[in-house]
Design brief:
This protein has about 500 residues and is an alpha+beta fold. It contains 10 helices and 30 strands.
């Protein structure tokens, strides 16, 4: 259905003319089109602040790193973080990336419960996830797939929201204690309907935390636990992930660490045989391993037309992709705190010339707390042993099936071009406005529109001046065009 089509009953909280209707009353819009754009801004700010407040730890550190105290322990659901905006009997979801979802059955459930409770407006934070009929663990890719392209009404019915925090209710801010916050959420969203409180308990000892980790995470396959204390801070407790990766570069230690390996640059193989950088690992090695590895790697050097810069602004020495290592990490993230994608460089490797060449950056993920486990002499650098799909098994990664060697972006399209001239002291000055549509906004690296203003005056000390503005909104970029035009194309300037 066309984005300009309208569905009866579409919420007035967003400009419905810009909604792309997916199935029935379910549609997707953008944060910029919300009638109250601060809702999107607050969603981004919440994600950014919470990411800095929750320290990642692993099971073995429960006793050594967790301060003694009372904790509110909740189950971590593998889904898409979203803020539920309820106002005057209407509701929608917005995520940090600016995707707005309207018309989901869970939103109708929220409206009924909040209206019955006498709430007029509220902002809740939750995890949008897909509830499988067989009860197996939900994954973020399940929710993303159903929300992006629902195959049936059943897909929409299975999208649920596990609420774990609130920003305000009827203009009143969050209670000071998180336990009180959760208590209010539990009263408003009772039961296990499509919208419900996240599973949570209060714990006081490391033994209790360990028990829930064994039960919920190791036993039931939950993504992890979130621990919040009003006095001790917040923690994210997750199992470590193990990955097999190819070694493509290294750096050497300096000063008293000279002659020892500092860290390794690692990559995974895409289906097309290209190498995509996943990150670096510099911990988990003994000094004997650092010494021996550095000696061997110096005999494996390769040329490269691309330079990756490590700690201390030192470029990695690239090597022939012959080693496979196993590393573990506490977490992988595929989005920034503002909901943007994380792109990593993709390289080609020519075995005949032993040379790497850059192809382009494409979406992947970043490693959190990577640790070297062992060198895998039983594995080889191929699309099976060091496959990029290892990452996609844990996170949704866009364009992973695209061939990085042949992938080309759509061509840009000129929307408007105007040139004006003026004679100054016998010389011609030029002012030009150029607006184009990139047609690359879905790539994630580009804005939808670019406005370029050129001002050339041969009588100035600096003859050429340029200004650029970008936007994902056609209305905004048109407004910028009018602003530039009215300020710069004044009396005396004539169309060329």
């Amino acid at each position: 259905m066309a984005a300009s089509s309208k569905i009866q009953g579409a919420p007035s909280l967003i400009d419905s003319a810009h909604i792309e209707w997916k199935l029935g009353k379910y549609g997707v819009g953008q944060g910029k089109d919300l009638k109250n754009p601060t809702v999107w801004q607050r969603t981004q700010e919440y994600r950014r602040v919470q990411a800095s407040r929750l320290s990642p730890i692993e099971k073995k550190d429960i006793r050594s790193r967790l301060p003694v105290g009372e904790y509110h322990l909740s189950r971590k659901v593998d889904g898409e973080m979203a803020v539920l905006w309820f106002h005057d009997g209407q509701a929608l979801l917005v995520n940090p990336g600016g995707t707005v979802r309207v018309g989901l059955p869970l939103l109708a459930d929220a409206v009924k419960k909040l209206t019955k409770a006498g709430v007029s407006s509220a902002l809740f934070v939750g995890e949008l996830y897909y509830r499988h009929p067989d009860g197996r663990r939900p994954r973020v890719s399940d929710a993303s797939s159903a929300a992006r392209a629902p195959g049936s009404q059943d897909d929409l019915d299975r999208l649920c929201l596990a609420v774990f925090d609130l920003l305000e209710v009827d203009g009143q801010p969050t209670p000071a204690k998180h336990g009180d916050t959760y208590g209010r959420i539990s009263k408003l969203f009772t039961g296990k309907d499509r919208i419900h409180p996240v599973d949570a308990v209060t714990v006081k000892t490391a033994e209790e935390i360990d028990k829930f980790f064994v039960d919920w995470v190791e036993g039931q396959g939950s993504e992890g636990l979130v621990l919040r204390s009003d006095t001790a801070g917040g923690f994210k407790l997750k199992p470590r992930h193990n990955l097999d990766v190819a070694v493509i570069g290294f750096t050497e230690g300096s000063d008293d660490r000279k002659g020892l390996l500092h860290d390794l640059l690692c990559a995974v193989l895409r289906k097309d045989g290209s190498f995509q950088i996943i990150g670096r690992v510099g911990t988990g090695f003994s000094d004997d391993e650092r010494r021996a590895m550095l000696s061997d790697l110096k005999d494996m050097t390769a040329a490269s037309d691309y330079a990756e810069i490590g700690d201390g602004h030192v470029a990695y020495q690239m090597v022939r992709p012959e080693w496979v290592i196993e590393l573990s990490c506490l977490d992988l993230i595929s989005q920034t705190t503002r909901g943007g994608g994380i792109d990593k460089m993709v390289l080609s490797y020519d075995e005949k010339t032993c040379r790497y060449a850059p192809l382009r950056r494409m979406p992947l993920a970043s490693l959190i707390s990577p640790v070297f486990v062992r060198k895998r002499d039983d594995k080889r650098v191929n699309t099976t042993d060091v496959r990029a799909q290892q990452i996609a098994d844990l996170l949704e990664i866009a364009m992973l099936d695209k061939d990085a060697r042949t992938y080309t972006l759509p061509k840009s399209q000129v929307v408007r071009r105007e040139v004006y001239v003026k004679t100054l002291k016998g010389q011609t000055a030029v002012r030009k406005l150029l607006l184009w549509k990139t047609n690359k906004e879905e790539d994630g690296e580009f804005s939808a529109f670019v406005l370029h203003y050129t001002d050339y005056s041969p009588t100035r000390k600096e003859p050429l001046a340029r200004e650029i503005r970008v936007s994902n909104s056609r209305d905004q970029i048109e407004a910028l065009w009018k602003e530039f035009h009215s300020e710069n194309i004044v009396k005396g300037w004539n169309p060329a």
